[in-house]
Design a protein that fits this description.
6 helices, alpha+beta, single chain
């Protein structure tokens, strides 16, 4: 344990004295993560811009129930301020799901995309409003033209 701590502290001291470009290091980490989990794992900025969301969280789960495999991708979009979010949540959720499904290289390994809109109270962060929408990946991928998000 002491040996690991020594090497870890040596590594950190090497980074702190390094005149490395932190942006290049960050891009290298993102590139490595994309290679590991699949291209498009991190949602595009287009999804964040649709509802003017502050942040997004991605969760992926696979389970077997009654001998049937279920795999779910869940996007939690937090504190959106867009006009469409207030008046047309279901269509906005579908747009986000289609964009994510077309952008993620390993989406074929999953059955469902869940979109969660989470609004927090700025005065009391324990108060949450959550809306959740589920879409089958097969339906999302059948969209003929992803630029119109499957909507007319």
């Amino acid at each position: 344990m002491a040996l690991r701590l020594f090497f870890f502290s040596l590594f950190l001291s090497g980074l702190s004295s390094c005149a490395c470009d932190s942006e290049k290091i960050f891009h290298g980490l993102i590139w490595g993560m994309n290679k590991l989990v699949g291209e498009g794992y991190f949602p595009s900025t287009e999804i964040l811009a649709l509802g003017d969301f502050e942040s997004v969280e991605v969760n992926m789960a696979k389970s077997i129930q009654n001998g049937e495999s279920k795999a779910v991708v869940e996007l939690s979009l937090i504190n959106g301020k867009g006009e469409e979010l207030r008046y047309n949540q279901e269509n906005l959720a579908r747009k986000c799901a289609i964009i994510y499904a077309h952008g993620y290289s390993k989406i074929d390994n999953y059955n469902t995309v869940k979109i969660k809109f989470i609004q927090t109270d700025p005065f009391n962060p324990d108060n949450l409003a959550i809306s959740e929408y589920s879409f089958e990946v097969e339906d999302l991928m059948q969209s003929q033209n992803p630029s119109d998000y499957g909507l007319q």
